[in-house]
Amino acid sequence: METAVNRPNTVVPTKYWHRLEDGRVQCDLCPRFCKLNEGQQGLCFVRARQNDRIVLTTYGRSSGFCVDPIEKKPLNHFLPGTPVLSFGTAGCNLSCRFCQNWDISKSRETDTLADAASPEVIARAARELGCRSVAFTYNDPVVFHEYAIDVADACRAIGIKTVAVTAGYVCEEPRKEFYRYMDAANVDLKAFTERFYQQITAGRLQPVLDTLIYLKHETNVWFEITTLLIPGENDSDQEIDALTKWVVDKLGPDVPVHFTAFHPDYKMLDRPPTPPATLTRARRIAIQNGIRYAYTGNVHDPEGDSTYCHSCGKKLIGRDWYLLSDWNLTDDGHCRFCGTLCAGLFSGPPGNWGPKRVAVRLGDFQ
Predict the structure, then answer these.
(1) Are 326 and 306 in contact (CB under 8 A)?
(2) Which pick of 37, 131, 135, 301 has the fewest CB atoms within 10 Å?
(3) Is the pTM of this model over 0.85?
(4) What CATH number does residue 176 fall under?
(5) Could you tell me if 227 and 191 are in contact, meaning their C-beta atoms sit under 8 angstroms apart?
(6) Is 235 left (phi over 0), alpha (psi -120 to 50) or beta?
(7) pLDDT digit string (tens) for 91-103?
């Protein structure tokens, strides 16, 4: 695949748009359907109308690269213990009042995009750094669709897998194209009410549910779900009950669900941090409703971090934060005690990367 030239502020054409009768051009990448006059940017900031078409203005630019544990994405059933080369760009197509990465996702400053790299350089860097995968994270890869696909294509050519950390807010056709290139995803299901999505994220719930159903029934992408529980907003027993029952009914019991703790940030400073007991309660409801792999996150909870066999109940993978301890899976992912298959992508023994987080400059790999 031919990719754009590696230079600062590279602008590349896009294909998901059409002209309106009133002279504006509508972006068809995500359900926002931004309608732009010449020179205007979409809500995401990085897709704009230039020369009577929609372009991506940040191709080849990143807000930074870091080698993380794959469990930090969070993905607990995808090559456990291995390092992943993580990066993002700038901009986002949602407006979450609680955004924990708002300095990147809501950035309007090109200085945020301090590191430049071509898709081929990123793939080569991942291999030389010993990473099994590359993650598009920190901001949603939906908004840098073309760059993410080119990176994924370059990675696949040399045996590196790719991971999308996303809110799943994308239209049908670009969704199909995007996930043809992805190996895994963590989808942020922010809540289970339209009220929350409309008032807190300026989005809608149904397109996210559509993405989850598509991933399960139309792709081989391994995916897990994360819900950040915010006190008084989306943490009631009724909502968690409805969410987890929907997952079992529409996606099946093998999709892991992570309940993570909120801390006050960005435009939501009036809510307290999530009590650990809330996460434990959510995990208990999920398990009672048939979710086989329910986890807690952003708190110290070795029990809630660990993976258990849904058949015999024995601990399969022990975790303390991002450090693996117990390992009771065969190389192909079966329980060593009873032989039951644990859902996920497992390949040989676990990695030993641990909790390390290492910032890297890709200039060294040009």
Answers:
(1) yes
(2) 37
(3) yes
(4) 3.20.20.70
(5) yes
(6) alpha
(7) 899 989 888 765 5
